[in-house]
Amino acid sequence: MKAYRAKNLAKEQINGNFISQYGLLRDYIEELKNANPGTTVHLEVENFTDPTSETRTFKRIYVCLGPLKQGFKAIGRDLLGLDGAFLKSAWPGQLLTSVGQDPNNGYYPLAYAIVEAETMLSWQWFLQCLGDDLGLDSRSKFTFMSDKQKSSLYVQGLIQAAERVFPSAEHRFCVRHITENIKHIFKGKIYTDAIWKLAACTTNAHYEREMDNLKRLNKKAHLWVSKIPPEHWSRSHFTGRALSDVFTNNMCEVFNSKLVDGRDKPIITLLEYIREYLMRKIVNVLKVIDKSSGLLTPYATKVMDSMIKEANRYNVQWNGEEHYQVTGPNGDQCMVNLRTNTCACRRWEVTGIPCRHVVASVWVKATHDPNVGKPETYVNPVYKMERWKAVYNYKVYPINDMTMWPKSKVPTQITAPKYHKPIGRPKKSRKKSVVEVEEGKKGKKANGKTLEVEEQGPSKKAKTVKKSRPPGSNACAGCHQKGHNIRSCTAAVEK
Questions:
Q1: How far apart are CA 334 and CA 311, in angstroms?
Q2: Of 173, 177, 157, whose CA–CA distance to 165 is shortest?
Q3: What is the rounded CA–CA span in Å between residue 339 and residue 359?
Q4: Cβ(175)–Cβ(233) under 8 Å?
Q5: Residue 42 neighbours by CB distance under 10 Å
Q6: Cβ(189)–Cβ(165) below 8 Å
Q7: Which residues of 208-231 are buried (b: 16+ CB within 10 A; e: fewer)?
Q8: 224 vs 45, 183, 294, 390, CA distance in Å?
Q9: Between β-strands 55-64 and 40-45, what pairing exists: parallel, antiparallel or unpaired?
Q10: SS3 of 15, please?
Q11: In whole angstroms, what is the distance from residue 279 CA to residue 276 CA?
Q12: Cα(122)–Cα(130) distance, integer angstroms
């Protein structure tokens, strides 16, 4: 116990006191706003019955740094991923995050909040704060991405909250979580592969063909998938408003993984952990930008290179206007309209990057129109290098030590929320699903040895573990017979 108490005292000197930091929240907010102009912070307290009391109990806090807000607006892509992660401190709660995609298709954090629990009310409050920062209303045609797990109550609360706050928004579900759900009911890799194929379809006709294949495979599986509206998870039913065909919530998963080491710290230390990480992230992206060149971002350049390579195999017929008939080597045929920036395969419409049919059409148009630019000029401006540089031109600024923070003029002081200590040792790791447990038992085999992954915070290290020998496989050193050793060998005793 002495070692335990000494460890807690050392951690308190490094990270701060859990209870006292709630009393400094108002001062921290003032310092944060002064250092980063345009920052939005919403602090909510529990309902109080005594208006004369000088204390208020903490409930929620929402933070959207001004530079990140300006940078997200500069992206020009109406897409946000939403996710939550539990806190591991003495006063547990939930960390809600909203993450977008930058012009290089990298994750771009926008806002974060600490709430009491992941419920419909907390998500509704979080979305309302986001809407105020981005100037959205109930008629906004925005796109949100979230996990989709029927067993998770917070996801259901998130969906209900989004429908209430933004009824006209497009809501996408993470396909990876849909595949995890189907594994509980229909065993076999063939069903998860069918889900991924359906999600990757870009046209309604292609989607219907894959659904027919699934129906022939298993009618019950077809019925289960039919209950999930395709506009939530299949590219064939996505609109082009978000300029992204993403159907997984990896942008939030990656951001949350970077915050693992900060989720067990006091509230101000946690908020500072997030802000400092955002400072480092912007600097790291700027280093990549300095090494990049060209009209498009590295991601868009890679996609266009593959489209140009594939377009060489396509034949094009021109109708004399802006319509082109493009035929592929496998007999696939699509119509391209360069006036409306559309293609029958819908890749250009959904992503904003020309597909191979469009590239081939641009080459044919260049033969009779000398003013036609390169295929790269038909890429949406959201993928241009200029836009990428403009987004990361907004930097997160540091703050001073707490001894130099301005004093808040609010007369009441924030106190820590009530916490009932549960029985047993506090859990530090996330509770894994049944599918994750089964996959973890299998492990990864290489060269007769098992490779296990050891999680240490946001990083993962692989370690090699020797496989144990099966019982009875050892040979006796005396008689060389299997099933026993030399200590219990009767032949050795007789000798």
A1: 13
A2: 157
A3: 14
A4: yes
A5: 17
A6: no
A7: eebbeebeeebeebbebbeebebe
A8: 43, 12, 47, 45
A9: antiparallel
A10: helix
A11: 5
A12: 12
For the record, the structure tokens of 111 come out as 């806002």
Instruction: Give residue-wise pLDDT tens across range 251-277.
Output: 999 999 999 988 888 899 999 999 999
Q: Is the pTM of this model over 0.85?
A: no
How many CB atoms neighbour CB 480 within 10 A?
Answer: 9
DSSP state of 487: G
One-character DSSP codes across 333-372: EEEEETTTTEETT-HHHHHSS--HHHHHHHHHHHTT-TT-
Tokens found for residue 476: 């006796």
Q: In angstroms, rounded to a whole number, what is the distance separating the alpha carbons of residues 214 and 256?
A: 35
Q: What is the rounded CA–CA span in Å between residue 327 and residue 306? A: 18
For 249, other C-beta atoms within 10 Å of its C-beta total 23
- pLDDT tens-digit series, residues 290-326: 999 999 999 999 999 999 999 999 999 999 888 999 9
One-letter identity of residue 275: R
Residue 201: strand, helix, or coil:
coil
Cα gap 445→448, rounded to integer Å: 7
Question: How far is Cα 275 from Cα 296, in angstroms, rounded to an integer?
Answer: 29
Phi, psi of 278 (to 5 degrees): -65, -35
Residue-averaged pLDDT of the chain: 85
Q: How far apart are the first and last CA of the chain?
A: 56
By C-alpha distance, which of 91, 82, 164, 12 is closest to 414? 91
Q: Which two tokens stand for residue 404?
A: 């130099």
What region does 202 belong to: left with phi over 0, alpha with psi -120 to 50, or beta? alpha
pLDDT tens for 18-36 read: 788 899 999 999 999 999 9
> pLDDT (tens digit, 9 = 90+) per residue, 435-452?
555 556 655 544 444 444
Q: Quick one: tokens of 187?
A: 């065993």
Query: Containing H/E element for 79?
Result: strand 79-86
DSSP string, 171-218: EEE-HHHHHHHHHHHS-SHHHHHHHHHHHH--SHHHHHHHHHHHHHH-
Q: Is 95 exposed, middle or buried (0-12, 13-18, 19+ CB in 10 A)?
A: buried
